[in-house]
TrEMBL record, chain A:
Organism listed in the record: Labedaea rhizosphaerae
Source species taxonomy: Bacteria, Bacillati, Actinomycetota, Actinomycetes, Pseudonocardiales
Residues at which Mg(2+) 1 binds: E105, N555
Protein's gene: purL
GO cellular component, as recorded: cytoplasm
Protein's name in the database: Phosphoribosylformylglycinamidine synthase subunit PurL
Active site (UniProt): H56, H107
Alphabetized GO MF terms: ATP binding; magnesium ion binding; phosphoribosylformylglycinamidine synthase activity
TrEMBL record, chain B:
Residues spanning the membrane: none
Places the protein is found: Cytoplasm
Phylogenetic lineage: Bacteria, Bacillati, Actinomycetota, Actinomycetes, Pseudonocardiales
CDD domains: GATase1_FGAR_AT (cd01740)
UniProt function note: Part of the phosphoribosylformylglycinamidine synthase complex involved in the purines biosynthetic pathway. Catalyzes the ATP-dependent conversion of formylglycinamide ribonucleotide (FGAR) and glutamine to yield formylglycinamidine ribonucleotide (FGAM) and glutamate. The FGAM synthase complex is composed of three subunits. PurQ produces an ammonia molecule by converting glutamine to glutamate. PurL transfers the ammonia molecule to FGAR to form FGAM in an ATP-dependent manner.
GO molecular function: ATP binding; glutaminase activity; phosphoribosylformylglycinamidine synthase activity
Keywords: ATP-binding, Cytoplasm, Glutamine amidotransferase, Hydrolase, Ligase, Nucleotide-binding, Purine biosynthesis
HAMAP family referenced in this protein's UniProt entry, alphabetically: PurQ (MF_00421)
Protein name as annotated: Phosphoribosylformylglycinamidine synthase subunit PurQ
Highest taxon of the lineage: Bacteria
Entries under Pfam families matching the protein: GATase_5 (PF13507)
Gene label: purQ
Catalytic activity: N(2)-formyl-N(1)-(5-phospho-beta-D-ribosyl)glycinamide + L-glutamine + ATP + H2O = 2-formamido-N(1)-(5-O-phospho-beta-D-ribosyl)acetamidine + L-glutamate + ADP + phosphate + H(+); L-glutamine + H2O = L-glutamate + NH4(+)
Subunit text: Part of the FGAM synthase complex composed of 1 PurL, 1 PurQ and 2 PurS subunits.
Length: 757, 223
């Protein structure tokens, strides 16, 4: 083996060539590292900087736009937040001393390479983020996007991703309560696998990732560290240790991490017991960038330095170099800072759960992160320069040259169905189309019942979890993004995503409270993509200000493109709401004795609509108008209706418009309905327009007057649309046709099994 | 009246089983896989999950946990024992119930609201049901296909030891639509579906599962 690249050795050999470009660092970034250290970095330092200064960890292209979050967060919005952007996950006060924490994250690229493990470890990673806040993880959701439903490669990627999400989440014991499945050819070579986790804790139990208190011990616990997920850092091994690849088989390991949900389940219970014993000063999960990230972030956020004896890390591969140990993304690991007097108690809890725990270092005076390998110093850096003071770029921004042409290509000239027969045929075709068809094939592979707190789950508009069994306090969550709208107008399209997620939470009877996001875009080096990104961030930040709900955190995923073709810009927005008593929740399915009302207004809006997509393969024009004041009013009326028992069911109108909402509400309630359209507006527009700010509600017949008076008093437009007919086994729409529930169900539920079974 | 609920590493539905016991007005006692006695409980539930990550074979490692010896001894003396999902698999591996659970015929994990027909109302876990009653409870498993030698299946059918049968479609390829069976003395019952997830229509599809836990309380009190 060649000489260990120690700090002393690096100082003596300033001219050694280093493979920084292969590790993704630019020439000026490498020069800056040399300037910070006053010498060349060691291999281990280079590994740390390169991975921590990557786009994924440093947010170097997006950070400059975060000013929009702070500029649009009012003191009232801030007051609800117990922890915000920059922590592992945002935390909000949900009342009665409870706090909820939630976050969305992407695992896009690994999931294309290895769908099962990519998706599985995406779930694992987001769950550890929630644990790192001191919370018990309660549920997960997965917004997923794939290429064309009938493309052969989608048959490879989708079943693998779904099995991975299910395989990990089911074994971990967290209910999967919702998410999205969207098909679009732009995701063909770049599927989006986003994962959300929500957790809860007593507000006083909040833990932050700080390493403070000189002399406190740093303990690594969970799985052993191996060669999986080392990714780019393997170039260091091959360069430095050329000819030393035999024996350990390092070259044969995949760069996608491999998950073990059983270990993670045990780790969750172990962590919660540690939190309950109050013997954790600071805690950090190990995700992207592994120990490089955990040690530098803990030290950077604390009030001292840190010393780590890297050779103490329990390994599962032979011959690992310090750089590999620091960069490994082996799953199911956590790092805690513990007072010396609590170390024995900490170890006892880990022993009870058969969790490997090792003291690997301690918090020191000063401000250096020093890492040794068998007594020799291999890293000696200011941790802030690794974790928080990475490069920041103001990337060029330019509105794409073809944006005007896209907007000018309106859907107005597309042939619309006329007459009963054509309208009926369109409805049946839409119901069975891949983006509108039932997601049951996917969601029935996910456990939605475990832990007994699930009040609403797919196919409801929102997922709802009971948090307090005594009082019934709970949270509701929805994630949404119509990327076609965002493509046409990134600012307004992102506000439409926010509006839809907000509305989905509101239809369940909950009050929207806070926002997270996962911003999936193409290359930040493309000025057109950066324009989309900047517009989206500004749209979301300003939209949240108007709604009065803070952005508590999020994730950016760039470079989602194949060649030079970017995905549709996809800023997935997650909204969390709170409900005082989950017994007041409003289901999606209809029931006997109900009157149907349509809240909101319908306009002739088909730009980016699912109808234009399915029937004409068309994307152009402008998306529907967004009116956030109206969304807010709608949410208030829905919350009041739910609390007063005036709402029997409610379903958001979005993709596919009123027709789709009616079909789903009937099928989920397994009842027929008779519907009358207004005679002052075109039937096609009423059925298929995707105007925002609309909800189909079902009101118990005796409460009809009270509810419509509530709407009138608040100035919310409403229209009586029909009645539920539980004697009927059809959805009858006057002037369009009678659709037997059995036919609708066969069309709606048949699509995904036909594609993927 | 105390009902023990065992937690192995990887057990997931222990909190649900404990809640179901409480809803039936009994005391739930947490039993740890490393326990060597049953803490004076009157009955034991082996709940669902992925004990030991389902490594090797579902339930194959859990049967060797220290707590299983007193469970087997007590069951042989007539203590009521219920195995749900992974718990059913563990009881089969431990030899308390015949047969084995295999990969679903669809090869996918299946989570759905499942209709069951109650075929034996004499076990301590089913006295509150009427024979032939149809109940809906969640089924959620990847390896729920019940299999046994033909002679064993004939014996189970002949002795009325099929306690639950899938109705409205066989979800996993189980022989004779078998969803749950009992021991020869009727005291040990195992089933793949999850009655503990159907104790309140707020959080489950129905409350049809609660009667199992109420049956137990009545049976033990009456004994």
């Amino acid at each position: 083996m060649t000489q260990l690249d120690t700090v002393a050795h690096a100082a003596e050999t300033p001219d050694t060539e280093q493979p920084f470009r292969e590790l993704g660092l630019k020439d000026d970034e490498y020069a800056r590292i040399r300037e910070i250290l006053g010498r060349r970095p060691t291999d281990a330092e280079l590994a740390m900087y390169s991975v921590m200064w990557s786009e994924h960890c440093s947010y170097k292209s997006s950070k400059v736009h975060w000013k929009h979050w702070s500029a649009n967060t009012t003191p009232e919005m801030k007051a609800k937040m117990l922890a915000g952007i920059g922590e592992n996950a945002g935390v909000v006060d949900i009342g009665d001393g409870w706090a909820a924490t939630f976050k969305l994250e992407s695992h896009n690229h690994p999931s294309y390479v290895e769908p099962y493990q990519g998706a599985a470890t995406g779930v694992g990673g987001i769950v550890r983020d929630i644990m790192a806040m001191g919370a018990r993880p309660l549920a997960v959701m997965d917004p997923l996007r794939f290429g064309a439903a009938d493309h052969p490669d989608t048959r490879r990627v989708l079943p693998g991703v779904v099995a991975g999400v299910g395989g990990y989440g089911n074994c971990l014991g967290l209910p999967n309560i919702g998410g999205e499945v969207v098909f679009d050819p732009s995701y063909q070579g770049n599927p989006l696998v986003n994962a959300l986790c929500v957790g809860a804790m007593r507000a006083e139990d909040l833990h932050l990732a700080h390493a403070s208190g000189t002399g406190n011990k740093v303990i690594l616990f969970g799985a052993r560290t191996g060669l999986d997920g080392i990714g780019g850092v393997s170039v260091l091994a091959s360069d430095t240790f050329s000819g030393d690849e035999g024996g350990s088989g390092r070259k044969k390991l995949p760069s996608v991490q491999v998950g073990d949900p059983f270990t993670e389940k045990v780790l969750i219970e172990c962590c919660l017991e540690l939190f309950a014993e109050k013997i954790v000063v600071g805690i950090q999960d190990l995700g992207g960038a592994g120990l490089s990230c955990a040690t530098s972030e803990l030290a950077s956020a604390g009030d001292g330095g840190m010393r780590v004896e890297l050779d103490k890390v329990p390994l599962r591969a032979k011959g690992m170099t310090p750089a590999e140990v620091l960069s490994s993304e082996s799953q199911e690991r956590m790092c805690a800072v513990v007072r010396p007097s609590d170390v024995d108690a900490f170890m006892a809890v880990c022993r009870k759960w058969d969790v490997i725990a090792t003291e690997i270092g301690e918090v020191t005076e000063g401000d250096r992160l020093v890492i040794t390998w068998h007594g020799e110093t291999v890293v000696d850096v200011p941790p802030r320069t690794v974790a928080h003071e990475g490069p920041m770029y103001e990337r060029p921004i330019a509105r794409p040259a073809d944006q005007d042409a896209l907007i000018a290509d309106t859907p107005d000239g597309l042939t619309r169905p006329r007459g009963e027969e054509e309208l009926a045929a369109t409805l049946m075709r839409m119901v069975a189309s891949p983006n509108l068809a039932s997601r049951r094939w996917v969601t029935q592979q996910y456990d939605r019942y475990v832990r007994g707190g699930t009040v609403l789950a797919q196919p409801s508009d929102t997922g709802m979890i009971r948090i307090d069994e005594e009082t019934g306090r709970g949270v509701a969550l929805a994630t949404d993004c119509n990327a076609r709208f965002v493509k046409l107008d990134p600012y307004q399209g992102t506000q439409l995503a926010l509006a839809e997620a907000y509305r989905n939470v509101a239809v369940s009877g909950a009050t929207p409270l806070a926002v997270t996001n996962c911003l999936n875009f193409g290359s930040p080096e493309d000025p057109g993509v950066m324009w989309q990104f900047e517009q989206a961030v500004r749209g979301l930040a300003e939209g949240c200000k108007e709604l009065g709900i803070p952005v508590t955190g999020g994730n950016v995923s760039f470079y989602n493109q194949t060649g030079t073709t970017a995905i549709l810009p996809t800023p997935v927005v997650g909204v969390l709401g709170v409900i005082d008593d989950v017994r007041d929740r409003v289901p999606t399915g209809l029931g006997a004795g109900q009157t149907l009302l349509l809240l909101g207004e319908t306009h002739d809006e088909f730009g980016g609509s699912e109808w234009a997509n399915v029937v004409h393969g068309h994307l152009g024009g402008t998306p529907p108008k967004v009116d956030l004041a109206r969304e807010k009013l709608l949410a208030e009326v829905l919350a009041e209706g739910a609390r007063s028992g005036l709402l029997a069911a409610a379903h958001d109108l979005s993709d596919g418009g009123l027709a789709q909402a009616l079909v789903e509400a009937c099928l989920l309630g397994d009842v027929g309905a008779s519907v009358t359209l207004a005679d002052d507006q075109d039937a096609f527009v009423q059925l298929f327009s995707e105007s925002a700010g609309r909800v189909l509600v079902a009101v118990p017949r005796p409460e009809e007057m009270r509810f419509t008076e509530l709407c009138a008093a608040r100035g919310l437009p409403w229209r009586k649309t029909g009645t539920v007919d539980d004697e009927s086994d059809a959805l009858e729409i006057a002037g369009v046709g009678a659709f037997a529930l059995a036919d609708l169900r066969a069309a709606w539920e048949g699509t995904l099994p036909a594609l993927f079974d | 009246m105390k009902v023990g609920v065992i937690t192995f590493p990887g057990t997931l539905d222990d909190v649900d089983a404990q809640r179901a016991v409480r809803y039936a007005d009994a005391e739930a006692v947490a039993l740890w896989h490393g326990d060597t006695d049953l803490r004076g409980v009157d009955a034991v539930i082996v709940p669902g999950g992925f004990s030991y990550g389902d490594y090797l074979r579902c339930g194959a490692i859990a049967r060797f946990a220290p707590v299983m010896q007193p469970v087997v001894d007590a069951a042989r003396k007539g203590m009521p024992v219920l195995g749900i999902c992974n718990g059913f698999q563990i009881l089969c591996e431990a030899g308390l119930l015949p047969g084995a659970l295999t990969r679903n015929s669809s090869l996918h994990f299946v989570c759905r609201d499942q209709w069951l027909r109650v075929e034996n109302t004499e076990t301590p876990w089913t006295t509150r049901y009427e024979e032939g009653a149809e109940i809906m409870v969640p089924l959620k498993s990847g390896e729920g296909g019940y299999r046994a030698q033909k002679s064993t299946v004939d014996e189970l059918e002949g002795e009325g030891r099929v306690v639950f049968r899938y109705a409205g479609g066989n979800p996993n390829g189980s022989v004779n639509d078998i969803a749950g069976v009992c021991s020869a003395n009727g005291r040990v019952v195992g089933l793949m579906p999850h009655p503990e997830h159907a104790i309140d229509a707020l959080t489950g599809p129905t409350d049809h599962g609660l009667a199992m836990f109420k049956s137990l309380v009545e049976s033990v009190v009456a004994a």
